[in-house]
Design the sequence.
């Protein structure tokens, strides 16, 4: 195989390099000449429009119909609603009502309200959600955790026993504020605020709350007349043991435990036989009916069995006039409303998304917030307290075969009918039965397996989990929430002020640059330090840390001058992860540039995002480092620097052969005439005096033949030939004929 004339390669290579250089400069201009990013006001306005517009609408027009369909999703499918779907929704709604009625009564007692307020909450909010919500399976109504959260915080302001009217008014006010916060979160796409209450914190909080709720049910289960208003486990146990000297009526305990066992057996049968899914759902209602009849006919209330007594039926009364928007407690009510809004949203969205994923569709979290907000605002005006999505009732609704949110409407109408017709019968319902119903719903709130998974995956997340758990258990609900949020914030702050930084290398035979620690096969490019920092915001909190970290790398490289890297000539910042930057971040980049220039090192920026490049241009940072040092990709930055300094494009490294380790241990590595680095760190050819012929090569191989046999990959074949020829020339005066091996661009 004959060698080609060197001149032809020189002309062709020069022409190719000029074309590539012009192409890279054009791509840099795309980056520098990008339009200004949208303003903050424009982004907020767009967020509201996106929230109100239907997700399936492809056109850009925002007609009144599309806005209405976005606000009321039921309008987009009501026209295609069929009788077959209504049949499924009717059965699901009736099954759901059989569970909602007893649970709503029990959760009202947990919220320190009369029983009818739990039923009121299962009427208006589900109907409003059916009009505005997008989840097909979620069941709306009161839930245990939110009920306890409300009572534990509001009773510090008003006593529900000595002043029940003022307490109830404050509950409606808190519900109004919670709904307002939820609606604002959705309209302005502030759903990320809910994410501060992390999944791990939710698991811990729910588990702790379930245990506290369960212990509080000992009051009803044992028939204790006087009980503590505190929620921590120590106070509750003290109240239980302190009540032993009081008169004790075992009938409460016998009734409660009997029906508690009945509910658990029904649930076990329902899980074993999927066709009997309705049995666990109807078991609580059967318990209420049977226990009420037992008390009524045996006059057990005359023998110490505590009953509900206070039960007012009828339609939801208007409560708008009861909102305390000018009371001294309005500030505290708003704070409690914010906390409850976040907890309720977190539970509802998690439930909705879980079942939506099973059915293969997606719900918009921001639209769900709007729906939840308006339903709770409407609820606060109609004698309802805070409602949200219930996991246990949603599971029943799903198992019953619901097709749409019409099942919520059926459930609400059924509860409304029971308010009109059955309230007198419920007068004799034993409180112990309500306690057993609440207890039966608590195991689903304690997720030990998920807590174990959190421990295995992320220890800091587990710290937030147990912080919330023990905070709720041994202090209070508020302390548990505060502990969880504090740990979550600390994790965010720690990751923000100490973001991960990576040194990048090139994967063999590719243009991909990645972390050399994660990918050991990645090869450092000699003379170039490529840094990527893993933070979305380069700001006052982390800018100096990143600058100091980069300078430490530079100083360490200069001091050690390791064979594998050599002296640094340029630092390339891969800013693909940085979504935004503030003035402190820009100032840190300017200081970094000055320090590097003082050491004779250049600075380049690769792949800055839209907001970042816009601010760098406005701050004149681009002018300071030069427009020729802004690149679209890291690969272009590396290639451009090689062309400007070395006269040829950076080669793409080939795979490392095992023989390389043997050769690096000898003194047979040569210097290349084309550069000032050692051959094993920058040359294309290494040589050995082992006299072993290389299979596939002729006696006098040409550089191109060497390249073809060993499969060397490079952006320019001429440069491979030049390096090979230079090495061959070094051996021309040697008495020993060397065997050559092209190994690519060694680093």
Sequence:
């Amino acid at each position: 195989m004959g060698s080609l004339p060197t001149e032809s390669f020189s002309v062709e290579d020069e022409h190719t390099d000029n074309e590539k250089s012009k192409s890279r400069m054009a791509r840099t201009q795309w980056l520098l000449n990008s339009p200004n990013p949208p303003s903050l006001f424009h982004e907020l306005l767009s967020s509201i429009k996106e929230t109100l517009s239907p997700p399936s609408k492809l056109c850009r027009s925002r007609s009144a119909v599309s806005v209405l369909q976005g606000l009321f999703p039921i309008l987009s499918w009501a026209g295609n609603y069929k009788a077959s779907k209504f049949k499924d929704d009717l059965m699901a709604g009736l099954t759901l009502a059989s569970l909602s009625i007893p649970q709503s009564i029990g959760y009202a007692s947990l919220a320190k309200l009369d029983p009818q307020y739990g039923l009121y909450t299962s009427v208006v909010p589900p109907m409003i959600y059916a009009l505005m919500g997008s989840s097909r399976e979620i069941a709306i109504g009161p839930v245990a955790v939110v009920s306890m959260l409300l009572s534990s915080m509001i009773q510090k302001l008003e006593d529900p026993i000595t002043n029940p009217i003022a307490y109830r008014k404050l509950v409606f006010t808190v519900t109004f504020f919670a709904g307002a916060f939820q609606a604002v979160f959705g309209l302005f796409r502030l759903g990320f605020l809910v994410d501060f209450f992390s999944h791990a914190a939710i698991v811990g909080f729910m588990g702790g709350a379930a245990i506290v709720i369960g212990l509080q049910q000992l009051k009803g289960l044992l028939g204790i007349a006087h009980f503590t208003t505190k929620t921590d486990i120590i106070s509750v146990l003290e109240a239980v043991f302190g009540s032993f000297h009081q008169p004790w009526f075992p009938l409460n305990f016998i009734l409660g435990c009997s029906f508690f066992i009945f509910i658990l057996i029904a649930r076990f049968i329902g899980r074993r036989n999927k066709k009997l899914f309705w049995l666990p759902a109807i078991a609580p209602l059967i318990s209420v009916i049977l226990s009420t009849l037992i008390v009524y006919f045996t006059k057990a209330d005359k023998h110490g069995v505590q009953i509900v007594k206070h039960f007012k039926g009828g339609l939801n009364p208007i409560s708008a006039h009861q909102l305390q928007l000018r009371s001294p407690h309005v500030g505290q009510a708003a704070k409690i409303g914010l906390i409850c809004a976040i907890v309720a949203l977190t539970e509802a969205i998690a439930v909705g998304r879980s079942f939506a994923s099973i059915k293969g569709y997606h719900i918009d979290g921001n639209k769900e917030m709007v729906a939840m907000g308006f339903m709770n605002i409407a609820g606060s005006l109609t004698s309802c307290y805070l409602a949200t999505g219930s996991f246990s009732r949603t599971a029943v609704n799903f198992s019953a075969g619901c097709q749409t949110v019409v099942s919520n409407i059926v459930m609400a109408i059924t509860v409304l009918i029971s308010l009109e017709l059955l309230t007198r019968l419920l007068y004799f319902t034993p409180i112990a039965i309500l306690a057993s119903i609440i207890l039966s719903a608590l195991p689903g709130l304690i997720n030990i397996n998920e807590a174990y998974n959190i421990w295995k995956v992320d220890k800091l997340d587990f710290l937030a989990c147990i912080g919330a758990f023990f905070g709720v258990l041994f202090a209070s609900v508020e302390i548990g929430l505060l502990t969880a949020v504090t740990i979550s914030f600390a994790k965010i702050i720690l990751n923000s002020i100490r973001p991960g930084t990576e040194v990048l290398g090139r994967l063999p035979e590719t243009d991909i640059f990645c972390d050399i620690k994660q990918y050991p096969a990645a090869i450092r490019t000699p003379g170039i330090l490529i840094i990527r920092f893993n933070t979305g915001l380069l700001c006052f909190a982390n800018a100096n840390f990143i600058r100091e970290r980069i300078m430490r790398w530079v100083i360490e490289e200069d001091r050690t001058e390791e064979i594998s890297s050599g002296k640094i000539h340029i630092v390339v910042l891969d800013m693909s992860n940085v979504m935004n930057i503030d003035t402190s971040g820009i100032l840190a980049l300017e200081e970094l540039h000055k320090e590097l220039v003082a050491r004779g090192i250049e600075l380049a920026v690769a792949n800055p995002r839209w907001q970042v490049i816009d601010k760098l241009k406005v701050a004149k940072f681009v002018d300071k480092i030069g427009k020729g040092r802004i690149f679209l990709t890291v690969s272009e930055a590396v290639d451009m620097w090689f062309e400007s300094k070395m006269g040829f494009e950076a080669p793409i490294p080939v795979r490392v052969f095992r023989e390389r380790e043997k050769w690096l241990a000898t003194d047979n590595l040569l210097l290349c005439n084309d550069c000032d680095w050692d051959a094993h760190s920058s040359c294309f050819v290494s040589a050995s005096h082992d006299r072993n012929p290389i299979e596939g090569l002729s006696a006098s191989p040409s550089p191109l033949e060497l390249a073809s046999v060993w499969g060397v990959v490079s952006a320019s074949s001429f440069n491979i030939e030049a390096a090979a020829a230079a090495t061959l020339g070094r051996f021309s005066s040697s008495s020993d004929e060397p065997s050559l091996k092209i190994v690519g661009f060694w680093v």
User: Anything to note?
Assistant: Residues 330-359 form the longest helix (30 residues). Residues 288 and 429 are 6 Å apart (CA to CA). Confidence is low (pLDDT under 50) at residues 1-16, 56-61, 647-747.
